[in-house]
Amino acid sequence: MADHEGPDEAVADEEPRAADGRTPGRRGRATRQRLLDCTATMLGTSSYRELKVVDIAREAGTSPATFYQYFADVESAVVVLAEEMAAQGRRFGDHVRASTWRGRKGYAAAEALVDEIIDFWDEHRSVLRVVDLATDEGDGRFANVRTRLLNDLNNALAQVIEEMQASGRLPDDVEAHATAGVLVSMLVHVSAHRYGFEFWGVRTADLRTAMARILSWSVSGQKPPTG
C-alpha cells in the first residue's frame, strides 16, 4: 500500500454537494443525510443490486426526484457512505502510533487493535460488503475507499516494525511493509468472516486471541505473554 498524506481529512472537510454541484442549505443537508441514513439501513436488509431509488426515497419520506437532486444513482449514495466510513479508519493508525509495543503493554495494544477492527467491521458490515464486491469488479471509486481505510494502518504498523528492527528486536531481513500488509489482511479477512468461523465452531474469543498473538509477535519480535 502506497504512502499518502491526509486524504481522510480532505474527505472529512469537504462540503456535501447536490448532484448539480451546489452546496445545499441546512434543510437540504438534513434531507441528504436522511437519504444516506436510509440507504445505509436498507443495505443491511436488502441486496445491494436490488436496492432502488424509489425504495430509498419512500423510506426517507420523500420522492425519487428529491433523491436525484443529491445523488446520480444508488451507487453514488453508497460511495458517499463508504467515503465517510473510510475517514473513520484513521483511528486504527493513531492507535498503533500511540501504543507501546513491548512486553505486556504491547500485547494489550494488539488485543485493543483487534477489538477495534472487529467492532468496526460489525458496525459497517453492509457497506464494507459493497466495497469488497465493487472493488473485485474493478470499480476504482470503491478500491480507493478501501485503500484510504487501510493504508494508514498499514503504514503505522510498518513504522513500528522498522523501529523494532532499528532496536535489534526484529531481524534485518523482515520487510516491514510486506509484514504489515499481511497483518492488515489477516485482521480484515478474519473480522469480515468471523460469523463463518463461528458456524464451523471457532469462537470469536479464540479468533481474537489468535490474531492478537500473531500481531504482537510479528510487530515486537517477542513471544506474547502467557497467563
Automatic annotation (TrEMBL):
<protein>
    <submittedName>
        <fullName>TetR family transcriptional regulator</fullName>
    </submittedName>
</protein>
<dbReference type="InterPro" id="IPR011075">
    <property type="entry name" value="TetR_C"/>
</dbReference>
<feature type="DNA-binding region" description="H-T-H motif">
    <location>
        <begin position="52"/>
        <end position="71"/>
    </location>
</feature>
<dbReference type="InterPro" id="IPR001647">
    <property type="entry name" value="HTH_TetR"/>
</dbReference>
<feature type="domain" description="HTH tetR-type">
    <location>
        <begin position="29"/>
        <end position="89"/>
    </location>
</feature>
<dbReference type="Pfam" id="PF00440">
    <property type="entry name" value="TetR_N"/>
</dbReference>
<dbReference type="InterPro" id="IPR036271">
    <property type="entry name" value="Tet_transcr_reg_TetR-rel_C_sf"/>
</dbReference>
<keyword id="KW-0804">Transcription</keyword>
<dbReference type="GO" id="GO:0003700">
    <property type="term" value="F:DNA-binding transcription factor activity"/>
</dbReference>
<dbReference type="GO" id="GO:0000976">
    <property type="term" value="F:transcription cis-regulatory region binding"/>
</dbReference>
<feature type="region of interest" description="Disordered">
    <location>
        <begin position="1"/>
        <end position="30"/>
    </location>
</feature>
<dbReference type="InterPro" id="IPR050109">
    <property type="entry name" value="HTH-type_TetR-like_transc_reg"/>
</dbReference>
<keyword id="KW-0805">Transcription regulation</keyword>
<dbReference type="InterPro" id="IPR009057">
    <property type="entry name" value="Homeodomain-like_sf"/>
</dbReference>
<dbReference type="Pfam" id="PF19352">
    <property type="entry name" value="TetR_C_38"/>
</dbReference>
<keyword id="KW-0238">DNA-binding</keyword>
